[in-house]
Amino acid sequence: MEFIVPFKGEVKFKLVLDPTVWIFDDRKLNLETYFQEERIEKDELEEYKRGMGEHWSREIMEGNTVPPTLNSEKTYKSKEKKEMLTGTFGIAFKPFLLNAEPFEHTKRVVFETANGEFEFPIEHAQQLIFKFSEKGQPLRENGPVHVLLPDGSNQDNPITDIQAIRFE
Q1: Residues with Cβ < 8 Å from 31, sequence gap 6 or more?
Q2: I want to staple 10 with a disulfide (CB 3.0 to 4.6 A). Which of 36, 77, 83, 167 is the partner?
Q3: 3-class SS at 49?
Q4: Which top-level group of life is the source organism from (predicted)?
Q5: For residues 43 and 86, what is the distance between their CA atoms, to the nearest angstrom?
């Protein structure tokens, strides 16, 4: 089994997903609590603008300071390390779909698996979640990712053995 998932079909950029590195991604979701929590959708562009405004204001008031390299490297506390080694994690499909830039005429996303094909309208596919870790381990048996519905209703029976993602 390959640990990468290629994009195929009607997209501008043919991405290749590598779920083994997502454990370090800030966008990862803790699937042990994700489907029980109430979620608030955030506008990423608005948050970026707000952060840049705060940074600009601080530079005007305090002057520009260049941080030392070591301070910009992320360090993980003991609790975070333990979570990463024992947690079950996923990541939203939407950012990858948007980065691939499907053509305007692209209407559906097809997950090619060892067990057949699973098709979703592109609007619905944006809400899907990729599970990439179970109890701190990559999904080796029937991975590299499992596709979960946005409401988590298929957690016990996810779409597995993903070999490629085709846009039509």
Answers
A1: 88, 89, 90, 129, 131, 148, 155
A2: 167
A3: helix
A4: Bacteria
A5: 30
CA distance 134 to 60: 46
Pairwise CA distance, residues 64 & 50, whole Å: 18
Radius of gyration of the chain (CA): 19
Strand partners, 120: 109
Instruction: Report the sign of the C-alpha dihedral through residues 75, 78, 83, 86, in that order.
Output: positive
Residue 141 has a pLDDT of 85
Give the predicted TM-score (pTM) of the model.
0.73
Structure tokens at 52: 């840049």
Q: Which residue blocks in 87-148 are alpha helix, DSSP H?
A: 94-100, 122-125
First to last CA, the chain: 25
In degrees and rounded to multiples of 5, residue 45 shows phi and psi of -65, -40
